[in-house]
């Protein structure tokens, strides 16, 4: 954290945070409510805004041979979805999340809020080169499973006890054909009711948690 901006009301309500910042040597600057409105992206700001360093790590530091579960997002455009998947990955005990291709910046305000703190709990890597992201997962000893609604293999019939990298695609278009070809296996979640599909965050939660529970069994 480089600097903290805080209104008088927020300084009183969050005195422990302000004291912790000062104790860590972080400059704390008082601001007006109007200034807080301008600095914040939310409709009702909390009155406390921090300037922080970026969290993304190099790919080779995030995906290592010690990893058992990694989540890869390819061309995911919605920051709320990306943040929610990061939160799911964290909750399931994943070792890293890789944002590949044209996936939204994890430092986007909506993504940060949707991640609900999970950005600080596990390594996040950004890489434009999708094949490089998949190659890094394979080199680390992970099987790459591509979530695909039209795959032949169904989730409940796949061995998920091995170290796995789950690959999820764009909300509207899914994964490109070349990514599906590069993955070790394309897997679909069986739909037992009348819904045509699951949204990205829900599908990711089902797949990632199924892997996490299978590994722990």
From TrEMBL:
| Organism domain of life | Bacteria
Q: Where is the RNA 2-O ribose methyltransferase substrate binding domain?
A: 2-52
User: Quick check: keyword Transferase in the entry?
Assistant: yes
The UniProt record lists the tRNA/rRNA methyltransferase SpoU type domain at: 69-209
One GO cellular-component annotation of the UniProt record comes to:
cytoplasm
The molecular function terms of the Gene Ontology recorded here are: RNA binding; RNA methyltransferase activity
Which Gene Ontology biological process is one annotated for this entry? RNA processing
Entry keywords, A to Z: Methyltransferase, Transferase
- Sorted alphabetically, which CDD domains does this protein's record hold? SpoU-like_rRNA-MTase
* Alphabetical list of SUPFAM superfamilies matching this protein: alpha/beta knot, L30e-like
Is the keyword Transferase assigned to this protein?
yes
Which protein family is it in? Belongs to the class IV-like SAM-binding methyltransferase superfamily. RNA methyltransferase TrmH family.
Protein name, entry field: RNA methyltransferase
* Lineage of the species this protein comes from: Bacteria, Bacillati, Actinomycetota, Actinomycetes, Pseudonocardiales
């Amino acid at each position: 954290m480089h600097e903290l901006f805080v209104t008088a009301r927020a300084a009183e309500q969050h005195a422990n945070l302000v004291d912790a910042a000062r104790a860590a040597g972080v400059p704390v600057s008082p601001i007006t409510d109007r200034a807080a409105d301008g600095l914040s992206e939310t409709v009702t700001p909390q009155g406390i805004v921090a300037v922080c360093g970026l969290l993304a790590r190099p790919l080779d530091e995030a995906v290592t041979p010690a990893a058992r579960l990694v989540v890869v997002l390819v061309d995911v455009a919605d920051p709320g979805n990306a943040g929610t998947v990061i939160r799911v990955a964290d909750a399931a005990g994943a070792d890293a999340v890789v944002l590949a291709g044209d996936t939204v910046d994890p430092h986007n305000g909506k993504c940060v809020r949707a991640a609900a703190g999970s950005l600080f709990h596990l390594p996040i890597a950004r890489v434009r080169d999708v094949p490089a992201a998949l190659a890094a997962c394979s080199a680390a000893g992970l099987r790459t499973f591509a979530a695909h609604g039209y795959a032949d293999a169904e989730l409940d019939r796949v061995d998920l006890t091995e170290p796995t990298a789950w690959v999820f695609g764009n909300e509207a278009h899914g994964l490109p054909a070349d990514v599906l070809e590069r993955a070790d296996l394309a897997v679909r979640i069986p739909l037992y009711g009348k819904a045509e599909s699951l949204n990205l965050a829900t599908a990711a939660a089902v797949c990632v948690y199924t892997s996490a529970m299978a590994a722990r069994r």
